[in-house]
Every structure is written in C-alpha cells, then in structure tokens.
Amino acid sequence: AEYMGESVINGVMNFSCLSSFVSFSVAVWLLCGVQAHLDPHYHKLRALKAAESLTPAIISTSEPLVFKQKIDHFEWNSTTFDQYYFVNKDFWDTETGPILLFLGGQQPLDFSRVSDPEQSAVAWYANKLNAMIVGLEHRFYGNSQPVSRYTTDSLRLLSVEQALEDVDHFWGEFVRSQNLTSGTHPWIAIGASYSGALAAWARLKFPHMLVGALASSAPMEATLDFFEYDHGVTRSLQAFSGGCLVNTMSLMNQINSKIDADMTEVKRTFGCEAVQDNVDFAYIVADAISFAAQYNQLFDSSLFTYDLRDEFCVNITEAATMQTLAQYVRFVHEQLKVSCEDAGISRVVSETGEAGASSVIPSFYQSCSQLGFFQTAPQQGSLRSSAIDVDWFLGYCRKAFGSQFTKEAVSHLIQTTNDRYGGRRMKGRFTAFVNGAFDPWKSVSILRVDKSMSRTLLIVNVTTGTHCPDFHSPPDNFGDESSVLHTRLLKEFRRWLIGHEDPRGMTTWYESPLFVGGIILICLLVAMAVGITVTRMRKQERERTLPPMIPHAHRPSAMHAPELQHLHQAPLPAATMGHLNVEGYARLSSAEA
Questions:
Q1: 212-216 and 431-436 as β-strands: parallel, antiparallel, unpaired?
Q2: Alpha-carbon torsion (193, 195, 201, 202), positive or negative
C-alpha cells in the first residue's frame, strides 16, 4: 500500500510538471507564431509569391499607371485586370519619407485631388510630411473594370472583401517592385466617405501594412433603413435659417402630394420629363436638396469651392416658388454633369450594363448586396415622400439584380458586414474618424469610443463641418476651426510615424502582444507553482495517514518463535478483521508473543 501510494503521488507530480511544461511550451510557440504573423517580413514573403509586377521605377505623373490586379482573390488561379493608380512623389523624401495611400471610392479616381497642396488636404499632408502619395482606384469604378458588362454574376466580384484584398495585393507588389520597406517608409491610408470606411477596415485587417488610417465621414455601420439621413438634411437647413427649412418643406410637400397624379408639367419644370417613376422624381428633387446640405460646397474639376447650401437657402427664403427650386435642381445636375434621369434610382434598370459607363449600377449593387444605406423617409419631418421606403429600394434591387434580394436576404447581408468589421464598435487601432456636425452621414460613423474600443482611436467632430470637412481643402482655405483640425490630424499622423519602428504599429504597452504574452506566461508559472505545492501537500497528508511500518528486525517471525506459526497459517476471525488496525495488530502480536 505504501509503495502504491508513493507511486501514485509521484505520478501525479510528474504529470503536473509535464502538463505545465507542455502548456508553457505551447504558449511560447503560439506567442512566437503571433509575433511572426504580425511581423511585416512575414507578409513580404507572401508578396514575393505574386506573379505580376509594377513599373520598375517610381513615376510621378498625372497620367494613371496600370497594375495587374487579381480578378478574384479567393480563387486559386485567378486571372487579372487592369487596376489604375497614381503616384505623386513631388514632396517625397526618398530616404525616410512615408507613403500616403489614397483609396478611391465609388467614383473614378482623379489625380487633381492629390496633386495641389493649395487645393487638396491630402497633398497638403504630403507636403508637410515629405510623403509620397499613391492613389488606388476602386475596382468597378472609373477605368478599373474587371468585367466588360455588368451582370448579377459578374458583380459578385464587387465586394468590400475583394476591395480590401486589392489593397493588400497592390501594397505587397508595390513594396516589392520598388524595393521599399515598411520600416523605412511607413504607410498611412486615407479615404473619404465609403473609401474612408475602407481605410479604417484596411488598418483593422492589415496592421502590418498600415501604421494608421484617416477615415473622413466614414459610414462604418451598414444600415438597411437609413432614415436618419433625412434628419441630418433638415438639421442642416434649419441651422441656416428657419425660413429655409419651412419653405423647402412646403415645396416638397406639394411635389409629394402629387405622387399618384399626373406630374408631367411639374417634371417639365425641372427638366425631368424622361423620368417615368413619380416616386423616383420626388427622390431626385429631395436628393438634390440633400446634396446642398451634405456638402455646403460643390466641387468642379478644379476643386472650386462654392457655398451651395447657403446660396440655396438665400434663394428659397426670398422666393419660395417651384421655379426657384427647379432652377436649383437644374444647376446641381449641370455641375455634376448628369441628366435628371441619370440622377435617379430607376436608372439601374434602364442602364445598358456596359462596364465603366457610369457608377450607378456598381454603387447600387453594393447597397443591395452589403451596405444598404437606403435613404428613406422618416415618419415625421421628412423632405422625402413616404413612398420612398425600404420596399421601394428593394424593388429596384430585384429588378436590376434578381429576385434573391429579398428584405430578409439583404438584412442578413448587411448584418454580416457589421459582424465582420464591427460597425460603430470597430476593434481597430490608430485610426482617426472625422465627422461634421451637419453631415447627414454622421449617424452611421464612429462619434465616440466606448470601453470596448481602443484608446488609440481619434474622434474629431467638426462643429461647423458637413461631409468630409477635412478632406477637400487645406487649412488656409477655411477658417480657424479648419486650421486647428488639420494641425491636429497632422500631429496624429506624426505620432503614428514616430511609433512605426514597432512593426505592428502598437505603441501602447497594454495592447502589445509581448505584454499579453507575458501575462499568459506568468499565469502559467503561477499555475505550475500552485500545482506543485498542492501535490506536495497531498503527499504529506498521505504520509500522515499511512500506517507506520514496523522495522523488519523487530517483527515477530515464525523462524524464531515456532509457537506463532499458527498465526501465519490460520486466518484471523472475522470480528477481529473488522477492527484490525496497526495499534491493534501490535497489541495482538505482543499478547500472542
């Protein structure tokens, strides 16, 4: 019994030590694996496997360059398409200068947006940071077309996931072909509106690639019923003057009340005779008004700034007539270089489907398949007709892309997007979110950081700003608030760049994998020490309860006492066995002796 007890105790101790050692080894192995995965050199090896290459030398030109991008990143042997990009190295320090990655959104990429520091905030940042600007056009927009025609099957290649993989693959090839290192030339992603969300998601998914990201007016929370947008429009008009909002609401109510009637004359006044759907016509007029509220400025090819909302409100307050409203809508369409029919939702059905002809089909497909953002009429205080609801938008989704786009299916797709990237509670780090107080999109962006989010997120709310208040103009073009805004963002960029020696871009100690790994190792060591202590205590307890062994020399033996042989030959009585213990055995032996 003593031997078996000691064997069991030794076995438990050995197993405990072995388990602790194995756990310790596995923890170290996992930690090393995490560190290797976060190391940029690990991902550079991935980039080296890519077959396509870029131009051998960096070129700074207003003409777009071409990159052979994979059509489908989730297919093993994917073919390629021509993805366009720009490079501006006018301000770049070739020794240590960073690289600003300007991500294109749901429109063609325009080099002028990143070329002049007096007109473009991106170029202003590059000038201050001695940075290179690389602009990457989004697939399915502008000249970067993976397909020749838009069909439901071909549009499946248009997704947030494919766009993010475009960024990763382009970055790897650009770094490899230009012989750059992220340690010497750190990258910062910059985007506005939808591309701002892409910049934030790229930093979230590829921390090895980007030390930070600027997400200006980024819609982070995909939403099916985006009625809050209309509240933002009315709030912006109200901020200018009460008369502006009241007169605009009165005119829109006149239009909305005629939805079910003949609207030929009203459409003719607006130059919208070709629009067949009366609801779509009401949507077009309301959308033109929201354009003034969203931007309060209009940009032509030279980035000329025009106070659109203020001008609209002045005119509509002085003369609240249908002709005044129609004149404004015509002006907006002229500036945007679109017809009234092209500005509507019904165009997605009438389009020929030729790739690159316009951005209407791909942008609407993204709304139907992943993002939503259907700008519906709220129940109270709406500029839009009550007929502009989720079912109206989804009806066009089904007409354009197939019957599978039901409300339940689209709701699931939108929720999947939020689950995948975090929505307004994104878990990323080192990202700056900038929003204007009068931007109708701000309700789906990140306006505050809760306890579950990283403290490295920077939240900037511009009290007088609208959509992308920091993006289009450098501080010298606006007032003091803009100067403070851009200076603050520039300071944040420099903070990211100072910490870029850490390849993971993690400069806060409590978020470092080394810190987390150290805590894990300490816990394992404590657990091992507790296990050994408990095992020893149990052994001591067993030793106290085991019967003391009688030395062999003092044990009665049949060889020395023949009269005791019957004790070895005959079993003890049952009554005696029931009460037998060590002390009883000793007394019995003495008595018999």
A1: parallel
A2: negative
CA distance 185 to 100: 10
State pLDDT tens for residues 445-502.
Answer: 999 988 888 888 999 998 888 888 887 666 555 556 667 888 889 999 999 998 754 4
Element (H, E) at 486: helix 480-498
SS3 of 12, please?
A: helix
Coil, strand, or helix at residue 330? helix
Pairing status of strand 132-136 against strand 80-88:
antiparallel
Q: Which structure tokens are listed for 174?
A: 């650009």
Q: Is 265 helix (H, G, I), strand (E, B) or coil?
A: helix
CA–CA gap between residue 16 and residue 198 (Å, rounded): 49
pLDDT of residue 173: 93
Token pair listed for 219: 């819609």
What is d(CA 160, CA 196) in angstroms, rounded to the nearest whole number?
12
Phi, then psi, of 244 in degrees rounded to 5: -65, -45
Cα 300 to Cα 119: distance, rounded to the nearest angstrom: 12
Helix and strand totals (H; E) in the chain: 20, 10
CA–CA dist 133, 90 (Å, integer): 9
CA–CA distance from 23 to each of 14, 351, 534 (Å)? 14, 61, 18
392, 225 contact by CB (below 8 A): no
For tokens 């170029």, the residue is: 123
- The SS3 assignment for 373 reads strand
Question: 83 pLDDT band (50/70/90 cuts)?
Answer: very high
CA distances, 293 to each of 304, 318, 465, 481 (Å): 17, 18, 11, 19
Grouping H, G, I as helix, E, B as strand and the rest as coil, residue 333 is helix
On the question of pLDDT at 301 being above 50, the answer is: no
Residue 559 φ/ψ region, left for φ over 0, alpha for ψ in the -120 to 50 degree band, beta for the rest: alpha
Instruction: Give me the helix-helix angle, 194-205 and 160-177, nearest 10°.
Output: 60
Residues 487 and 434: their CA atoms lie apart, in Å, by: 13
- Token output for 459: 């939240």
- 372 in helix, strand or coil? strand
- If you search the block for the tokens 């240590």, which residue do you land on? 96
Encode pLDDT of 229-262 as tens digits: 999 999 999 988 778 999 999 999 999 999 999 9
Tell me the pLDDT tens digit for each residue of 562-577: 554 554 455 555 444 4
> How far apart are alpha carbons 529 and 526 in whole angstroms?
5
Nearest CA to 90 out of 66, 111, 69 is that of 111
Torsion angle in degrees (nearest 10) through CA of 386, 389, 393, 395: -90
Q: Which of 70, 216, 199, 213 is nearest to 144 (CA)?
A: 70
Residue with tokens 């070129």, as numbered in its chain: 59
Tokens of 369: 């398949």
